[in-house]
Amino acid sequence: MSEITKDLVQNLESIAKQVRRDIIKMTGIAGSGHPGGSLSAVEILVSLYFARLKHNPMDPHWPERDRFVLSKGHAAPALYSVLSLCGYFPRDELWTLRKVGSRLQGHPSRLDTPGVEASAGSLGIGFAIAQGMAMAGKLDRKDYRVFVLLGDGEIQEGMVWEVAMSASNYHLDNFTAILDYNGLQLDGFIHDVMSPFPIASKWRAFGWEVFEVDGHDFYQLLEAFNEVERVRESPSIIIAHTVKGKGISFMENNNEFHGKAPTPEQVKLALMELGEVV
Amino acid sequence: MGVTKRSPREAYAKALIKLGEERNDVVVLDADLSTSTQTAKFGARFPDRFFNMGIAEANMMATASGLALSGKTVFASTFAVFATSRAYDQVRVAVAYAMANVKIVATHGGVTVGEDGATHHAIEDIALMRVMPNMRVLASCDYESTYNLVLRIAEESGPFYLRLTRVSLPDIYPQGERFEIGGGKLLKEGRDVTIIAEGPLVHEVLTAASMLENIGISAEVIDSYSIKPLPEELILDSVSKTKKVITAEDHSIIGGLGGAVAELLSEKMPCPLKRLGVRDTFCCSGEAYALLRHLGLDSEGIAREVKNFLDKF
Ligand SMILES: Cc1ncc(C[n+]2csc(CCOP(=O)(O)OP(=O)(O)O)c2C)c(N)n1
Ligand SMILES: [Mg+2]
Q: Is the overall model pTM greater than 0.90, yes or no?
């Protein structure tokens, strides 16, 4: 459990800004990708990798490490930026995203990218892979924790609820899901496409311990990461209220940027908003 | 053959709207990709007969069956990889075994999906659908073939899998061209080799054939838009003349068009065959045509392979 100091949070905030710049540049250069759902997950990933996860970029397969699985794999740019800032691979590689020969695939690929725990991109699947890792942790009596990031559209997949049932059945208290609750999916607002509501009580009904936080507030995120440590006998989920496209005025809640890269002009504008001198 | 490129997905939407206007029994389902597959256009026009099932492909396929068993002609759409791999048992039991009147129109076939990478490349979908009893498998190669195949499968009862590309494709067929189930199109006559292609590779093969013409190789080109049933007679007629065959597909060389042609020829007309496609490997991220080049499936790569193949005889 970590102490949440002002210095720590200020440091995380500046890292988050860097990650947002990376996401914009990476998708801009690639000319494709998913900036919206990458930007909504920035604080979640930054707080995990820089303040919560026990991991070693010099030894990505360290058996004692905590695991993180990006089940909403289309947010790969956010994950790659964070992994590069941790030192898993050179920062230069970020600009090769989605190009032939790059180690940075459009969706996370464990065989290609150091630090990527599970290949994902077909929604729902990463959640079950992460569950398997938590089960192995129990079997091996290791005290690592498995975190997994889900999208709020992703939880429409039936298999998500199969995992919800089994993780609870097997009392996986070393298993924590984080829901990137940004209210949007590919075709529009989740409440217009396919309502997953009520969300929190569904998870509770499946036997999960539920926490709700502002997913852009480091204090609340870190506090929740401390809280899940205290949960016994059941898996936990942190419902993180987020904004899709967070941090760039013209991308916030604008689903045009779910799966479309910013144009060179938009890259410039976005970087200016993020305080980069161009 | 023009150079205009048009989107097969737009052709699909146009055909769906025409069907919606003409027939009340046409219902369309999608799984949170309607703005991409373009079924949203049908949804905007006929909101009562459009159901966005959310990110739930398995649910969508079995629901499509129930609607079909209750008298509807159902079009169910998502990306090819999710329509097949993700919802396989649902398609098998609820659609194929039930002989339900469900038309699976899957966009984003093959590696020409491009940058999204291996998880989104459907390189096994033709094989998966082809092996399923009762399922007929089609692949369009341009705007008109898409438009007319969609209209054609709506006339026919029972399950279909129609595969579309993400990328826009150069026009090959004129407006109003008719496509029979089980048919193929002889696009170019030749003497030395028969090249049988599907989808986006039809155009690449035609370009390769004209390159080959310049070095004295005369290739016959067939668009096998119907992969199951296969246009057996058309293929055998051609092969009885050329005695050598190349297949080209935006798909694994295992079990797809190349597999189907190999099965046919080995039983009815054994002859040298070379299958071009994805060679039993997951592909990678990259721009669609950069990937075709990378895999040797662009026109130049195909021409090279054809020449190497013929040089052996
Ligand atoms: C099984 C599956 N079906 C469809 C898709 C296509 N797809 C990619 S992202 C997406 C929407 C995801 O929405 P959400 O989970 O809310 O993600 P976010 O809003 O965080 O980007 C869809 C439908 C997919 N990747 N996997
Ligand atoms: Mg969302």
A: yes
Nearest CA to ligand 1 atom 6: B33
- Exposed/middle/buried for B181, CB within 10 Å: 0-12, 13-18, 19+? middle
Alpha-helix residue ranges (DSSP H) falling in chain A: 6-30, 35-39, 42-47, 76-86, 125-139, 158-169, 190-193, 199-205, 218-230, 264-273
| pLDDT tens sequence for chain A (278 residues) | 668 999 999 999 999 999 999 999 999 999 999 999 999 999 999 999 999 999 999 999 999 999 999 999 999 999 999 999 999 999 999 999 999 999 999 999 999 999 999 999 999 999 999 999 999 999 999 999 999 999 999 999 999 999 999 999 999 999 999 999 999 999 999 999 999 999 999 999 999 999 999 999 999 999 999 999 999 999 999 999 999 999 999 999 999 999 999 999 999 999 999 998 65
> What is the residue extent of each domain of chain A?
6-273
- From chain B, the residues in CB contact with A104 under 8 A are 285
Q: Say yes or no: CB of residue B55 within 6 Å of ligand 1.
A: yes
| Mutation site, B30, B32, B42, B84, interface A, largest A CB count within 10 A | B32
- Across the interface, whether the CB atoms of B287 and A100 are under 8 A apart is answered yes
Q: Which of these CATH numbers, 1.10.10.200, 2.40.40.20, 3.40.50.970, 3.40.800.20, describes A6-273?
A: 3.40.50.970
Domains and CATH numbers, chain B: 5-170 (3.40.50.970), 185-310 (3.40.50.920)
